[in-house]
Every structure is written in C-alpha cells, then in structure tokens.
Design brief:
There is one protein chain. Helices cover 67% and strands 0% of the residues. It is mainly alpha-helical.
Amino acid sequence: MGLSLWHILLVLLVVLVVFGAGKLPQVMGDLGKGIKSFKSGLNDDKTADKSDTIKLPPSDDKTS
C-alpha cells in the first residue's frame, strides 16, 4: 500500500493549483530551508546532550 505514480501526480497537481506556478519555487525553497534547520537543530541537541553530561563518582553509601 505504497504511493503509486498516480498518487504523486495528484499531490503535485493539487500543490500547483493551490500555490500557483510562480510561487512554487519560493515555497519549495522555504520548505528546504526549514528541513535543513530542523536537522541542524537535532544535531545540535545531540552534541549538547553529550557535553552536558556530568559523571559522578560511585557512591559509598552503605545504608543497607
């Protein structure tokens, strides 16, 4: 149950009708910039998690 060629063509036709041929390159460029920014934010978050980790020495707590 994947996307067939007809599904993709229908989606492209709807996008073309909604945004118009003149504005379509601008919309796609903005979408690409948004995806790139999102991926960059995910990578920044992963590196921040690694650098913010504090290693504590083992506890000598003998309460048992």
